[in-house]
Amino acid sequence: MLGTMTVSTPLTRADVAAMIDHTLLAPEATPADVEALIAEARRLGVYAICVSPSMLPVRAPGLVVATVAGFPSGKHHSLVKGAEARLAVDQGAAEVDMVIDVGAALAGDFNAVLTEVITVREAVEDRAVLKVIIESAALTDQAIVGACRAAEQGGADFVKTSTGFHPAGGASVHAVKLMAQTVGGRLGVKASGGIRTAEDAAAMIEAGATRLGLSKSAAVLDGFAE
């Protein structure tokens, strides 16, 4: 059901569902929308839901609850990102996806990126999985590598491609492959932004993604065999 795409190991619907953060980060989202997201997540059998921090706390038994910090611009003071992340964890988030200062990465100031990752890591301690969004479509290859190295050095558990809100675009196979090569299996790699089909998802997984951030999870999963 993946068209002409060839994958090294056939991916099943359950395999892919277990990698998905089913995501709702639209600014107009309502509590009813979040409840619908949770119900759909349960029906699809995905790993986690990801919602805006203002929607916390939520009741989602059987699902991992993820949220974001410094979203979507990353142009928040690192202490604000840390405080936002800490509050989210206090309200039940088990995972936090923080956005770096993309401009710092573009300027080659990876010490600034490192400092803010450390700040958020220290804020949540070991109570949450920390994913670092580098906005890869807006970065050069050199900046992608530098940002991933800073994320690893700062104590992140994952590097993540995109917020899905940047005009430069979302995840690409090239970026995912480069990120996966840089972290070398020591960190997870989350591909997010613009993944709307089974072919897209399979390509990201083949490139090295270990988690997928999707808002169109049902459409993607419908392209995989049981």
Fold topology:
Layout: H1 13-17, E1 20-24, H2 31-44, E2 48-51, E3 64-69, H3 78-90, E4 95-99, H4 102-106, H5 110-124, E5 129-133, H6 141-153, E6 158-160, H7 173-183, E7 188-192, H8 198-207, E8 211-214, H9 217-221
Description:
This protein is α/β, with parallel strands linked by helices and 226 residues long. 40% of the residues lie in helices and 16% in strands. The chain has helices at 13-17, 31-44, 78-90, 102-106, 110-124, 141-153, 173-183, 198-207, 217-221, and strands at residues 20-24, 48-51, 64-69, 95-99, 129-133, 158-160, 188-192, 211-214. The protein has an 8-stranded parallel barrel, surrounded by 6 helices. Helix 5 (110-124) packs parallel to helix 6 and helix 6 crosses helix 7 (173-183). The longest helix is centred in the middle third of the chain and has 15 residues, at 110-124. It is globular. Residues 1-7 have low confidence and may be disordered.
Following the backbone from N to C, one meets helices and strands in this order, namely HEHEEHEHHEHEHEHEH
Question: Mind summarizing the main beta sheet?
Answer: 8 strands, parallel, barrel
Beta-strand residue fraction: 15-25%
CATH H level: which superfamily?
Aldolase class I
Report the structural category.
alpha/beta
Number of strands: 8
Number of helices: 9
- Radius of gyration over all CA atoms, rounded: 16 Å
Please give the domain count: 1
What's the CATH topology name?
TIM Barrel
Question: Strands across the major sheet, in which order?
Answer: 1-2-3-4-5-6-7-8
Quick one: CATH class?
Answer: Alpha Beta
Poorly predicted ranges (pLDDT <50, ≥5 residues)?
A: 1-7
Main location: cytoplasm
Keywords: Cytoplasm, Lyase, Schiff base
Pathway: Carbohydrate degradation; 2-deoxy-D-ribose 1-phosphate degradation; D-glyceraldehyde 3-phosphate and acetaldehyde from 2-deoxy-alpha-D-ribose 1-phosphate: step 2/2
Enzyme class: lyase
